[in-house]
Amino acid sequence: MGNKIRIGALISGGGTNLQAIIDSCESGKIDGEMVFVGTDNPDAKGLGRASKHNIPTFVVDYSSIIRKYGKEPGKIRLPGSFDEEDIRSKLSLFHSGADRQKIKKFIITRAIAEAGLLEKMKFYPVDLLVLAGFMRNLTPYFIDRINTDPDNPRIMNIHPALLPAFPGTDGYGDTFRYGAKIGGCTVHFIDYGEDSGPIIGQKAFPIEPDDTIDSIKKKGLALEWELYPECIRLFAQKRLKTVRMTYARDDGKEVKRTVVKIVHSE
Ligand code: GAR
């Protein structure tokens, strides 16, 4: 050992995925160590899980930042080296026709919150940042400051659906309401879009006629607790390589996509 990777986590809620990752680090399944747990939500139950394992925690209260901006937008202090146009040009969370003012508010409030996260995180350098039920979209302001090497992304997310189907905040609910016959979960590296980054791993389960949203969530979460540690383990083993692919489609169009290849151990 001695080469444990340093992992940081961001959460918003109960933190059962966080728990699975901490347990896998402690059991040696992942050659890694959880060095901080941050949250946007002061009431996140997962904070208690971190404290039980003596892992430092911090809160950046997104809601209060957004409220403050709503009341007095002129008084807000922007973070240093903040470039609204650069973020706007990279961000792909909004439709082309989306309201400019709405996007401006999003970019400014999130960059302030993200500067707060970065400020706290600088005390705990990490090799990998895992989003474990973190219910906020990160902007290019934050992403570019973590992913400093374009060939080595290091922010992972777990999503409760088989991406690219059902991105967004309610993956299992959307899977159920669509009438899908298979549900699942996905671990991916994040990019500038919503749940659109290169896929690392997926697990699937059948949806039976008597399933409900609750039973689907139960099945899905149980798979998440296996999948996330497995993907982090591959990262720790340096077995995840991102490759830029160009494909020719049958209709003659070219598709460019960054994909993850899982390679054998070095
Ligand atoms: C999990 O189902 C996770 O996939 C989902 O939130 C839940 C968190 O549970 N994440 C997202 O929807 C991200 N957009 P947990 O706090 O018990 O790990």
What does this structure look like?
The protein is built from 8 helices and 9 strands. With 266 residues, the chain is an alpha/beta fold. It has a 7-stranded mixed β-sheet with strand order 3-2-1-4-5-6-7, with helices on both faces. The mean pLDDT is 95. The structure holds glycinamide ribonucleotide. Glycinamide ribonucleotide is lined by residues 11, 13-17, 46, 132-133, 135, 158-160, 169, 171, 221, 224.
Overview features:
single chain; 266 residues; alpha/beta; Rossmann fold; seven-stranded mixed beta sheet; two-stranded antiparallel sheet; 8 helices; 36% helix; globular; binds glycinamide ribonucleotide
Fold blueprint:
Layout: E1 5-11, H1 16-27, E2 32-39, H2 46-52, E3 57-59, H3 62-71, H4 84-90, H5 100-121, E4 128-131, H6 140-146, E5 155-159, H7 171-178, E6 182-189, E7 199-206, H8 213-236, E8 240-248, E9 254-262
Bound molecules: glycinamide ribonucleotide.
